[in-house]
Amino acid sequence: MKKSKKNQKINWLIGGLSTLLIGISAYAYYDYMSSYEKGVIPMFGDDFTYDEMTFDASQGFEFHGANGTHLSFPKLAFIDKDGKTVNGKVKVKFREFHDAKSILLSGIPMQMNENRNEYMQSAGMMELRAYKDGNELSMKNRKSIKVNLAALNKVDENFNLYFLK
Fold it and tell me: The whole model's pTM is what?
């Protein structure tokens, strides 16, 4: 009788630990797979500086970076959280990453496809955010920013362009 109670306690303990490990594993997998929805999360703080520019949304804007990067913002390209077209002064924050170290430290997710089991090779990446009165903006449907990102390494026709919302 004593052995069966002892065995029962051991079985409960093993079952409880197994359930706990399965729960932790499931949460870790969920967290990993949802990392794309979280966006860019720097690994060790955010040490990368932005180029900041302010312009009138109704006029559009051209940005020419010192390294050759060029951005062209069309007129009335942004909407607010309610979907309304933004007029007036818009602040844009822009930064770019051109080497493996800066890309890794930036927190940009590098896994591809549904299972996140392939990794992309990058010739450069950028982050661009727009704000009006401190509120983040989105791109209006059928509007796009023309981007000519400087490539500091040789690229060929096998490189593709990806974006992360």
Answer: 0.64
